[in-house]
Amino acid sequence: MARSTSDLPTATELVVLNYIYANGPSLVGDIWKNDPRGKRRAYTSVMSLMSVMYDKGFLDRKTEKRAYRYSAKVSQAEVRK
């Protein structure tokens, strides 16, 4: 069964967005190494999460060598609403 998509970011997506707001455009590895909740998720799980966030329109990405550098596509003010 497929998950339903939401216009609102999940709690885990908010962690990623807040990290990017505080630190600027980031690689998956940056977020993987610096989870503020101290949880160590699999690198591929973080990569999948950020890809889903890109598909939902929360993140933008640019190719950098063999990786993507993600930036927030929605402002903090939009997320707070």
Please compute the radius of gyration using only Cα atoms: 12 Å
**Strand share of the residues?**
15-25%
Main sheet specs: 3 strands, antiparallel
Main β-sheet, spatial strand arrangement:
1-3-2
User: Termini distance?
Assistant: 30 Å
Decide which structural class fits the backbone. alpha+beta
- The helical percent reads 40-55%
Describe the structure.
This protein has 81 residues and is of the alpha+beta class. The protein contains four helices and three strands. A three-stranded antiparallel beta sheet has the order 1-3-2.
Would you spell out the secondary-structure blueprint of this structure?
Layout: H1 11-23, E1 26-27, H2 28-33, H3 43-56, E2 59-64, E3 67-72, H4 76-80
Antiparallel strand pairs: 1-3, 2-3
Descriptive keywords:
3 strands, alpha+beta, 17% strand, 81 residues, three-stranded antiparallel beta sheet, globular
In short:
The chain is built from four helices and three strands, in the order H-E-H-H-E-E-H. It is of the alpha+beta class.
